[in-house]
Amino acid sequence: xxxxxxxxxxxxxxxxxxxxxxxxxxxxxxxxxxxxxxxxxxxxxxxxxxxxxxxxxxxxxxxxxxxxxxxxxxxxxxxxxxxxxxxxxxxxxxxxxxxxxxxxxxxxxxxxxxxxxxxxxxxxxxxxxxxxxxxxxxxxxxxxxxxxxxxxxxxxxxxxxxxxxxxxxxxxxxxxx
Amino acid sequence: xxxxxxxxxxxxxxxxxxxxxxxxxxxxxxxxxxxxxxxxxxxxxxxxxxxxxxxxxxxxxxxxxxxxxxxxxxxxxxxxxxxxxxxxxxxxxxxxxxxxxxxxxxxxxxxxxxxxxxxxxxxxxxxxxxxxxxxxxxxxxxxxxxxxxxxxxxxxxxxxxxxxxxxxxxxxxxxxxxxxxxxxxxxxxxxxxxxxxxxxxxxxxxxxxxxxxxxxxxxxxxxxxxxxxxxxxxxxxxxxxxxxxxxxxxxxxxxxxxxxxxxxxxxxxxxxxxxxxxxxxxxxxxxxxxxxxxxxxxxxxxxxxxxxxxxxxxxxxxxxxxxxxxxxxxxxxxxxxxxxxxxxxxxxxxxxxxxxxxxxxxxxxxxxxxxxxxxxxxxxxxxxxxxxxxxxxxxxxxxxxxxxxxxxxx
Lengths: 177, 410
Fold this sequence. Notes:
The structure holds 2 protein chains of 2 kinds. Chain A is α+β, with helices and mostly antiparallel strands. Chain A is 19% helix and 25% strand. Chain A has a single domain (5-173), classed as Alpha-Beta Plaits (2-Layer Sandwich), CATH 3.30.70. Chain A is globular and about 50 Å long. Chain A starts with a strand and ends with a strand. Chain B has a 6-stranded mixed beta barrel with strand order 6-10-7-9-8-11. Chain B folds into 2 domains: 10-201, Rossmann fold, CATH 3.40.50.740; 272-409, Barwin-like endoglucanases, CATH 2.40.40. By secondary structure, chain B is α/β, with parallel strands linked by helices. The chains are: A alpha+beta, B alpha/beta. Chain A binds chain B through residues 16-18, 21-22, 25-26, 32-33, 35, 43, 45-48, 50-52, and chain B through 289-290, 300-302, 304-305, 314, 346-350, 365-366.
């Protein structure tokens, strides 16, 4: 594979504004009730010594995607040139197996029941732009790049590969617990 | 700094006119203020009911929705019913429209070619982005046309909107059309003509806000403190010429010259007798990640982020009441009752519950209906006192938004 694109997801910088969710929906014209990118919030401590962190996540474009293995219609594939995992919705039969297999809940199903998910803004990336979510993030909590480049793009912040059996193409801060 | 003329016509004010103002936002001694005479939102509606200082029979309301935006919802409903004539101007449906005799749809700023874009010492003619989606005009055009048709043409440019804009531009020595055509990327008064030739004028971000030689006006303390006030007699706000911790202007107006502690209308120390029935303190915040105050609930992509009105409640407080995250709950207090969803929120003090203010509107695309504007709905403004002695800060007329409540599963 020529390269693998991925995200640096820095929950320490996230301000929980959810603009990434809306930019994703607006950029792809996603139907109501479906979101390719979602933000989850986790609380730590108890009042008054209390804080929360929010983490934005979509498809992690894994090195070894669980969704591809279970798809009976060969509708999901991983692009050799950039590692982006894409779904051919004309082949999808809407069985939902990918949604059950994915550890991150990335596959989504709307009214037509065929799988839809983050394609890393393939059209924008091919045109040399950043994905819509990254472009809109005012806190630089989402950074896009080739996996080889992301530790450098993280600047002074020490980052590590997100662990997982499917090899998610995601970096997170080392200090994040 | 040279600026276009404002639309407040402050130079025409007389003391007689100022004395006719109802529902002072700032005390009479400080009227008119920077933006002209200024009345408190709620107090205007209160004047409709009390007839003081004289009966208010007509209100023309642009860009407001008192029922959702200000305190005392139930009294405002009574006032809206009592008005002879209520006109609402807005770009979107508002909570007040069911009570309006006339609703006038107004163009958004994206649909009109006026008035200005401005930032610091930079001004540009506004360019519309799209044609108006409906048969609408701007609120600026509305006032100029209304003034003219009421027979005050001499004061309202005889309804000629172009003449109105040119009058505003007079201090800059050009017409509005000249601003648009000669400085399509904006004009900075006093920046010199060579630096802003029509084609090469810099956008605002690249333009220095002030010259490096002189400190900004805010830092020129002697000038700032001796500046004339905005009242008819133009008395300075700081007559000693320096910052006043003991404010003699306030004292002269019969207000406390130093800050003093005032109790909440209802609270643990203000009304301990209510604690047994209503042990929790309710307050509200006005902005969330999706919404500004009482607006935008009708935008589907935003509504999906925060679909329901929620009550922030501490986990222990919820547990004591058998309330789980996402349960519908009743919030009951001495002045009203709401029905909202509980959100278990470890960041809230155990004896405090918090809500976002301004909930009333549904979202058509998501099949969500409007909520009732007062009892049984989700509008926190209907929960607070309307006792005139307790509901206002005496100086700035900020309104109290705290009360005591009990919460139980609905």
